[in-house]
Amino acid sequence: MAPTRTRSLLPLLLALATVLMSGPGDAQISIFPKEAFLQRGTSLQVNCSTSCNQTFTLGLETKLPKTELASGHNWKLFELTDIEEDSRPLCFENCGTIQASASAYVTVYSFPESVELDPLPSWQPVGKNLTLRCQVHGGVPRAQLTAVLLRGEVELSRQPVTGNPRDLTEITVTVLASRDDHQANFSCRTELDLRRQGVALFQNISESRQLQTFELPVTLPKLDTPVILEVGTQHLVLCSLQGLFPASEAQVHLEVGGQRLNPTTTGSRDLVSATAPLEVTAELEGTQQLRCVVELAEQTLEAQETLSIYSFPAPTLTLSEPEVSEGGPVTVKCEAHGRSLVVMLTSAPAGPRSREIQLTLNASSRLPSPEIQFTLNASAEDHKRRFFCSAALKVAGQVLYKNLTMELHVLYGPRLDESDCLGNWTWPERSQQTLKCQAWGNPFPKLTCIRETDGALLPIGLVKTVKREMNGTYMCHAVNSQGNVTRAVFLTVLYHHQNNLVIIILVTLAAILVPMATAIYLYNRQRKIKIYKLQKAQEETAMKLKTQATPP
Ligand SMILES: *[C@@H]1O[C@H](CO)[C@@H](O)[C@H](O)[C@H]1NC(C)=O
Ligand SMILES: *[C@@H]1O[C@H](CO)[C@@H](O)[C@H](O)[C@H]1NC(C)=O
Ligand SMILES: *[C@@H]1O[C@H](CO)[C@@H](O)[C@H](O)[C@H]1NC(C)=O
Ligand SMILES: *[C@@H]1O[C@H](CO)[C@@H](O)[C@H](O)[C@H]1NC(C)=O
Ligand SMILES: *[C@@H]1O[C@H](CO)[C@@H](O)[C@H](O)[C@H]1NC(C)=O
Ligand SMILES: *[C@@H]1O[C@H](CO)[C@@H](O)[C@H](O)[C@H]1NC(C)=O
Ligand SMILES: *[C@@H]1O[C@H](CO)[C@@H](O)[C@H](O)[C@H]1NC(C)=O
Ligand SMILES: *[C@@H]1O[C@H](CO)[C@@H](O)[C@H](O)[C@H]1NC(C)=O
Ligand SMILES: *[C@@H]1O[C@H](CO)[C@@H](O)[C@H](O)[C@H]1NC(C)=O
Ligand SMILES: *[C@@H]1O[C@H](CO)[C@@H](O)[C@H](O)[C@H]1NC(C)=O
Ligand SMILES: *[C@@H]1O[C@H](CO)[C@@H](O)[C@H](O)[C@H]1NC(C)=O
């Protein structure tokens, strides 16, 4: 420290001496250039000249390394090298007894050695202040050095760089981070404006740093999946989160009972959603946690859901015989498996014929038990009767059902009674009729109706024209594998009564009209005879009179 101080003191003392010792009219000493502005580390040539016309000594006083380059009779040219900082070189002379000196102003400029933007946070929350810090080292003259903080090409702040150039100078600016700042490049630029000195404007720019901004909602991810799942089924687990930015960079993890699912994630605008198929395996039976973790900007948001995973084998419904002959016993059995219980075993009537018949089950069969059964004697009405078995399982406070139905088939002989086949038909001749005759049975019976007398077939169905020949007694015979049945059908065709009536009317009319006509005729004839007889008598009288006048 001490030598430096003395070195820097020397020019000062000399300057003081010059001021004290030089006077007007004395020997002239000059220095060229009087002012210099140069880049640090470069060299400068200084010409000291004097007008002293006596013996003189001429020199240059500087703490800078110097070399004498050339000299004339009244001048000396020196070179100053390694000019690191501002200095005031001093030309001095001893002209006779007079000492004189002249000094020059050497101003040094230098570019900043480093311009650096402090690292940015890897993720900056949107809506929070972000302070950009620019560190400038070196760079003189400071009065002409400014720092500009940039976002891309846009100037955020322009500030003078002050302080000691040997120390790091920090320039800061605070910006409110927005979504638009995501992936924006920030940088810091220094400007050394030497245009005043006729040099130029020098810029140094830091490496740019890219910012990542993010925003997370206050809400939690939304899980969308049924909470009660059956072993052996497949489901799609959906997890979504609205209001996060940048959604496309969010990661979603889904797991069930510690097992990672393999989700497909899509992010658009500010919604991220992930779907993953979930295979409900037997190992998962019980309660499991479904977790959805959304990860963005080293932050996580998590949602959980408790899944109740159950296995519920369907009940089995068995009929001791799915097809039974009429009267045969049938045992209906409904059996539940696993932890489920049979809650109901009922039957529903089959066709319209058995509408009124309701199978009455023992009341105890309505109580839950692992197995319920009953036996019935099959009747024709039980044909196509459906049995319904329902098992229930309680999972997470909810009752789940599995139902089964089965149909009973009863083989029964043909049925052919009055309601199926009317025994008496009375039809007018030439009318159109429909003859209904239907036998029942399982298997479906074959029905034939034959007239006893001549074996003619009864026309079943639509009869276009009723003919009197159809009249007669028919024997209807229904047969299937279970038996046979016969029923007589009387078909009366009306045609006599109609004809008799006409005849009766005609006969009656004849009976009335014939005597009347006869009477009228006889009367008229009698009258005509009388008139004729009178005419005859008159003619005869006239003839008699003629003959009397002319005798033959
Ligand atoms: C130094 O200055 C003197 C006086 O101005 C001049 O005559 C001389 O040529 C100069 N020397 C150089 C090398 O410029
Ligand atoms: C020196 O020069 C000055 C003018 O510059 C002159 O007046 C003076 O007489 C000179 N002296 C000698 C000794 O030559
Ligand atoms: C951000 O900083 C500015 C001043 O630079 C201040 O006015 C504002 O309240 C700050 N905002 C937040 C969210 O901190
Ligand atoms: C930031 O710079 C990187 C490369 O350095 C470039 O890929 C990116 O597009 C720039 N960002 C903007 C917003 O210009
Ligand atoms: C600063 O800029 C100048 C020219 O503008 C260049 O010569 C110099 O090397 C730069 N300095 C750094 C540290 O990049
Ligand atoms: C149902 O069966 C139970 C025994 O299993 C019996 O005690 C009860 O009387 C029966 N009820 C009816 C309505 O048949
Ligand atoms: C079924 O028929 C048998 C005789 O064939 C009879 O003993 C039994 O009581 C009947 N069962 C029912 C439920 O009617
Ligand atoms: C199964 O049966 C139960 C009654 O035991 C009923 O509540 C439920 O709706 C039925 N489910 C189906 C799918 O038919
Ligand atoms: C058909 O009707 C007649 C009377 O018209 C009656 O005597 C006879 O018993 C009836 N037959 C049947 C099978 O109903
Ligand atoms: C028509 O048939 C009935 C029996 O079905 C019989 O009594 C009657 O005599 C028959 N009439 C004729 C005209 O054959
Ligand atoms: C009809 O049934 C009786 C017994 O009921 C049987 O003897 C007869 O052979 C059966 N007829 C036909 C054609 O099946």
Describe this structure in words.
The radius of gyration is 67 Å and the shape is elongated. Helix content is about 15%, strand content about 50%. It has about 550 residues and is mostly beta strands. Strands 12, 13, 15, 16 and 17 form a five-stranded antiparallel β-sheet that branches. A five-stranded mixed β-sheet has the order 20-27-26-22-23, with no helix packed on it. It is built from two helices and 42 strands. β22 (about 250-255) and β23 (about 260) form a beta hairpin. Mean pLDDT is about 85; it is low at about 1-25 and about 350-365. It has five domains: about 5-105, Immunoglobulins (Immunoglobulin-like, Sandwich), CATH 2.60.40; about 110-215, Immunoglobulin-like; about 220-305, Sandwich (Immunoglobulin-like), CATH 2.60.40.10; about 315-410, Immunoglobulins (Immunoglobulin-like, Sandwich); about 415-495, Immunoglobulins (Immunoglobulin-like), CATH 2.60.40.10. The site of one 2-acetamido-2-deoxy-beta-D-glucopyranose has 5 residues, from β31 and β34.
Largest sheet: 5 strands, antiparallel
- CATH homologous superfamily title of the largest domain: Immunoglobulins
Radius of gyration: 67 Å
Q: How many structural domains can be distinguished in the coordinates?
A: 5
**Residue ranges: pLDDT <50 for 5 or more in a row?**
1-25, 352-364
CATH-defined architecture of the largest domain: Sandwich
Mean pLDDT score: 85
Instruction: Please give the CATH class of the largest domain.
Output: Mainly Beta
GO molecular function: integrin binding
Keywords: Cell adhesion, Disulfide bond, Glycoprotein, Immunoglobulin domain, Membrane, Repeat, Signal, Transmembrane, Transmembrane helix, Ubl conjugation
Subunit structure: Homodimer. Interacts with MUC1 and promotes cell aggregation in epithelial cells. Interacts with ARHGEF26/SGEF. Interacts (on T cell side) with CD81, CD247 and CD9 at immunological synapses between antigen-presenting cells and T cells.
Membrane topology: Single-pass type I membrane protein
